[in-house]
Design brief:
The complex is a heterodimer of chains A (about 110) and B (about 110). Chain A is an all-beta fold and about 110 residues long. Helix content of chain A is about 0%, strand content about 60%. Chain A has strands spanning about 5, 10-15, 20-25, 30-35, 45-50, 55, 65-70, 75-80, 85-95, 100, 105-110. Chain B has about 110 residues and is mainly beta. Classes of the chains: A mainly beta (about 110), B mainly beta (about 110).
Amino acid sequence: DTAVSQTPKYLVTQMGNDKSIKCEQNLGHDTMYWYKQDSKKFLKIMFSYNNKELIINETVPNRFSPKSPDKAHLNLHINSLELGDSAVYFCASSRSAGELFFGEGSRLTVL
Amino acid sequence: QKEVEQDPGPLSVPEGAIVSLNCTYSNSAFQYFMWYRQYSRKGPELLMYTYSSGNKEDGRFTAQVDKSSKYISLFIRDSQPSDSATYLCAMYSSASKIIFGSGTRLSIRP
């Protein structure tokens, strides 16, 4: 029974396309996150939601739009994909400060 | 200057060795300090969690925090091939933000 699940696990698409990644957690946590991990393994926060409310919005191009329909779900939509968007995107949830539970990641390749 | 600095490695040691992984940070507002382990093609998982200066031990793992020097360490005793992974330090401030180091790739040779 997966705690934090993301779909799809792999995405290969052309530059300029739009894509979405979905995330669901069944842990009952109030806070969810999107992180981006580049090829050098650097994990950078993008967004955080607490009970459907956006609380962290890092310096991310506005082509990236998160959406939280309820506290168990956090989706990420990306418009007009660019080569530099290629990365692994991780969804995470937390119940307390610093204790993150990550999904398996969604590996995005933009050609 | 990055808020959290971590040597990316790679670090390769023989099985049974003691491993020392380190991070330094610049933001004195960080209150909680974590170590995450990430296996290849998987998400990071929490390994150790501390909020005060000093040592915390869990089995073969010891986390050490020195707030005065802004330095944290993770020690792995009796290292095993199954410990081969990328280790990421992470820090949390009251702004609800968790900042990660760049990760150290560790390989334990049988």
